[in-house]
Amino acid sequence: MTDRTMSAAPVPMKWVGPISISGNVMTGLQEVPLATYESPLWPSVGRGAKISTLTERGIVATLVDERMSRSVLFEAEDAGAALAAVRALAEHHDELARVVSEASRYAKLLDVHHQIVGNLLFVRFEISSGDASGHNMVTLASDRLMDHILRTVPGLAYGSVSGNYCSDKKATAVNGILGRGKNVVCELLIPEQVVRRRLHTSPQAIADLNVRKNLIGTMVAGGLRSGNAHYANMLLGFYLATGQDAANIVEGSQGITHAEVRGGDLYFSCTLPNLIVGTVGNGKDLAFVAENLQRLGCIEPREPGENARRLAVLCAATVLCGELSLMAALTNPGELMSAHLTFERKDPR
Amino acid sequence: MTDRTMSAAPVPMKWVGPISISGNVMTGLQEVPLATYESPLWPSVGRGAKISTLTERGIVATLVDERMSRSVLFEAEDAGAALAAVRALAEHHDELARVVSEASRYAKLLDVHHQIVGNLLFVRFEISSGDASGHNMVTLASDRLMDHILRTVPGLAYGSVSGNYCSDKKATAVNGILGRGKNVVCELLIPEQVVRRRLHTSPQAIADLNVRKNLIGTMVAGGLRSGNAHYANMLLGFYLATGQDAANIVEGSQGITHAEVRGGDLYFSCTLPNLIVGTVGNGKDLAFVAENLQRLGCIEPREPGENARRLAVLCAATVLCGELSLMAALTNPGELMSAHLTFERKDPR
Amino acid sequence: MTDRTMSAAPVPMKWVGPISISGNVMTGLQEVPLATYESPLWPSVGRGAKISTLTERGIVATLVDERMSRSVLFEAEDAGAALAAVRALAEHHDELARVVSEASRYAKLLDVHHQIVGNLLFVRFEISSGDASGHNMVTLASDRLMDHILRTVPGLAYGSVSGNYCSDKKATAVNGILGRGKNVVCELLIPEQVVRRRLHTSPQAIADLNVRKNLIGTMVAGGLRSGNAHYANMLLGFYLATGQDAANIVEGSQGITHAEVRGGDLYFSCTLPNLIVGTVGNGKDLAFVAENLQRLGCIEPREPGENARRLAVLCAATVLCGELSLMAALTNPGELMSAHLTFERKDPR
Amino acid sequence: MTDRTMSAAPVPMKWVGPISISGNVMTGLQEVPLATYESPLWPSVGRGAKISTLTERGIVATLVDERMSRSVLFEAEDAGAALAAVRALAEHHDELARVVSEASRYAKLLDVHHQIVGNLLFVRFEISSGDASGHNMVTLASDRLMDHILRTVPGLAYGSVSGNYCSDKKATAVNGILGRGKNVVCELLIPEQVVRRRLHTSPQAIADLNVRKNLIGTMVAGGLRSGNAHYANMLLGFYLATGQDAANIVEGSQGITHAEVRGGDLYFSCTLPNLIVGTVGNGKDLAFVAENLQRLGCIEPREPGENARRLAVLCAATVLCGELSLMAALTNPGELMSAHLTFERKDPR
């Protein structure tokens, strides 16, 4: 039986690349899919991808950390009771870990943090979630952890299974500081001649622009851990094409571009501490998603977590390609607008 | 000729509602489409929509402001030259307005703001953009404004046509303070009995949770103007279904839920200062988008801007529906998880 | 020999109180000194102090945590080298702890956090520092830790002994999330009649104002963990009177007031996660400071840290007194201004 | 009659300099006083001051803007009523300006901004305040404005005379974006040889450290418009010595250091958008304060505002001196700690 109210929003999708990638997760050339209404994104990422193939090591992608988080909220009798509860949780860490493991065989409790505000107690659980992005896994685990804690720790009442100290899909600092999702650093060393011939600019121009726009410009805007030009664009396109919960681009967009001139060449890096991606779970069973993940080499028989890590690295490298391309374009007056005019009209939609 | 590299990512889409809406832009009942991989979103928004129809005025949506922005970056000789330039721009506001109007017949210069950091000058142009979200319009206008300014104001050099004081798709404070996109406030007064019967909770429980989770929880997370539970989810679904640049959910997610008990009933409001939506431009010519906009009543022959304002109000009302439903669910232990388990399995994908 | 260029800025000082305090650090009545140019601060704090004595338990002050931090900055060859260094540090935690303990007999390494941005490695050391606020202790320890690390961990170069991930005297989120200084929660339950007679307002009026001004008002201002009315005023006065480095009011001001109506009475709390105070070190040997600390009961022969904890609790309780008084005043039109006019003229300077 | 409870906290004070200053407010050499418990601050600022005298133009200080602000809070019936009120205020700007001018002959209404959140209306009044920092002036004006508005604009009720959208002494973004206090940019061009001989470092080392520590380091810390090393230290010392309300270092600390290598020399700038200083008002009648202001040349018979502007520029230049000195020290391993050890022991207290 078909649900007649269901249909689909066919977002235009295109594969670009290949991107040359190395680092602690994968090595090789890989094309990537981007689904977006903003057609200039494809040639932009494509240009960055091409650059990556003209360098010695390609984009060196280093996976630094991975975890998914959920913060629950308890109402304590007072701050003293909240503090006593925090201490009880620390003493019974093994018990909490057992509850998490029982919620899912892929879930493992990594760490617990807390905040006390008056009599309110926020407890942030951090788990590893295998190949899943982990939203549901951590919610289920948190549900069970709350039950367990409310039964075993005195002085607490239920507040909420989500207390916003998680933080899911909101512009906060906690995710970058404590970790949420995959933390990936991508670095690319581009010979000066490649910068000049392919990007029509100089290493110094890009490094200077990065300081002025991405660091200082964001700072005067009252920005929060968001020192970049447009990570959100690449993340959206990649997330949609691979069945991710694209609302997580909110925290995903909070990353930092750092560029320097090194011996005349350009060192260009993108640090993405909050990539929330998975190769299993919601959205992954859609036919085109499964096909895309297949083509990305992300549903191979591997140890749990390996496929998701490969996906995260591909995503981060894609972000670097688009970031590099836009930053180069912005160093030249008029280039951004003419690119938009060209590609939006040529786009065969 | 077909581009064989092109395909589409068919994101599952469903219409929910109708929502009952009144206020300074539109009055009536309207269903809305949501494209998402997170199927529990549909019944969640649907529940909120149903509530809206059980109230006297429905969701009262007030459009407070609308503008699109782009900040350009100049390198001045020193801060003195930057200040002189700022004063020159103020004196020649009419000239700048003319340049903007010549860039597009729909564009109108509304305001100009600046920041000086050392010798760097960031100038933020704010324009009205008719029925377009205005990204391209404001970039084109900024391109021309920079040309004009570099020709007429001494002591400045080109820095970048985008200086991140815009701020586009990044977590900053400037958009909420100076404005970017449509600023819409949605309010709903829900009789106590409706809260109890339909949401299985009490007005006081929701008001208390809002303070503890959305206000205090976000605050301890180091949040930036993001006092809500999950605006990003509804925005993503609505943006994808209506051909919007969904990367703008980054700033769109920065809104505030405010709830209070009033005479025993529940006052529930969502303030969304940064809704970046349009009914013309990129993505709007796709067949399904045009059809959706048609069904939403947003491509009627009206004064420029009227269709986009209707779309913004529909979007904001959709956000309120989903926010209300999740907040209610979170007041009850276990409800969120069981809803996810129910709806993700029943979903006919 | 006297340095003739030296003199002193005699900031007007007054003792107010006593405040009634209980909780996990101290119990009793205590007057407190405030040095300030803003004379209305004294009667304001005095009024709050009086209220505390009219309640059952007085201000219940709970010390939640204490630590001092410094982040050093290394330049790594690349992110891979930075990650390898992070892992080496984790494996050699005991060695790092030994280095810290050798730097000062009062210093103890509590925790280590890091951030990797491109090839930059920020390492945040957290130590306990006995009765000292710990600025110098943690800097000395960090100096030695850097030496040790640069000798023993390959792939790193010196960046800076302070990398701003500390963060000292700057508006950031990291201190509230990871901890810096004493974390103290003060709570006061005030009978309705006391609120009405002494503060000329109602519990509901104060609770509502707190949500609207301190939570929502700060949020729209783009505030960062700063949900309060004027913590900075009390902190400055207390810090100056007790020889503290008052520039630390920058992070000290980042705290949250939470108020609710409970059974008709007023629950009023101030959470101050970043109180940086000490009873030994810079400034404490000045005669008037020593005398003030003496009178505060904070240079008694006790276990290391006990005196500083008492000082922190007294400071936090003082903050609550001033916060309560101002919040009450603001609920009544005209009261703030008339208080200023009264007290600034009556002040016998 | 003497108030026997009054005494004073004699904070150690020293004059350092002279600093060489030019720009749009003053030109010349001037010593400055700093009151602080942190004795290493004096030689640190002194070193920077000396550098300023070895350059061609000295510190070029540009006053960019000046205003004082207070936001009031109204409770409207709903967002529609709030919006109607905003429009009424815009239409009656001249009336509001008259009310402000009647509150004080020095007060002039510059601008009005607002935020609507649900039914809450925050209105931010910005005034010029002559030689006063303006706290009381703007509060008095706001009191009268509220009275006037509540009498003349329907649909509003009193909320609070301060709604935290001001924002006074709290870490927010609004002050930097809309302005609060004097906005001063200080720039210094230092010949390479001076950097090497006097600061024992290189222009490149300082420029690189600034990017890594002050921009990126602050960013990862979740910092808010706070790209500097230690503005708060100099601000505290200068504010205490000149009778300012030193709690305003909270917003004062939110400034940005920008440094670059120019033709081999060092361009070093400090941008301080929120200097809240005055030469009249609270604290200025204390004998030592009057003497200090006299010696600073800040109580001369000049046009209203001129003395305060001179004071702001002296303050900002002092900040640059200390910032430059610390940044230079941090480029050399061990220098910061040894400076502390040296100066804290030599200090004749």
Name the CATH class of the largest domain in chain A: Alpha Beta
Name the helix and strand elements of chain A from N-terminus to C-terminus, one letter apiece: EEHEHHEEHEHEHHHHEEHHH
**Main sheet: strands, sense, barrel of chain A:** 9 strands, mixed
Radius of gyration of chain A, in angstroms, nearest whole number: 22 Å
Name given to the CATH architecture of the largest domain in chain A: Alpha-Beta Complex
- Classified in CATH, the superfamily of the largest domain in chain A is 3-hydroxy-3-methylglutaryl-coenzyme A Reductase, Chain A, domain 2
Which structural class matches the secondary elements of chain A?
alpha+beta
The third-level CATH topology of the largest domain in chain A is 3-hydroxy-3-methylglutaryl-coenzyme A Reductase, Chain A, domain 2
Largest interface (CB within 8 Å) is between: A-B, 99 and 99 residues
Topology, number of strands of chain A: 9
Low-pLDDT residue spans of chain A: none
Strand composition percent of chain A: 25-35%
Provide the helix percentage of chain A. 40-55%
**What distance separates the N and C termini of chain A?**
33 Å
Mean model confidence by pLDDT of chain A: 95
The quaternary organization reads as homotetramer
Q: How many DSSP helices of chain A?
A: 12
Number of domains of chain A: 2
Overall shape of chain A: it is: globular
How would you explain this protein's 3D organization?
- The structure is a homotetramer of 349-residue chains.
- Chain A contains twelve helices and nine strands.
- Chain A is an alpha+beta fold.
- Chain A has two domains: 13-65 and 180-343, 3-hydroxy-3-methylglutaryl-coenzyme A Reductase, Chain A, domain 2 (Alpha-Beta Complex), CATH 3.90.770.10; 68-160, 2-Layer Sandwich (Alpha-Beta Plaits).
- In chain A, strands 1, 2, 3, 4, 5, 6, 7, 8 and 9 form a nine-stranded mixed β-sheet that branches.
- In chain A, β1 and β2 form a beta hairpin.
- Chain A starts with 5 loop residues before the first strand and ends with a helix.
- Chains C and D meet through β1, β3, α4, β6 and α7 of C and β1, β3, α4, β6 and α7 of D.
- β1 of chain C pairs antiparallel with β1 of chain D, so a sheet runs across the interface.
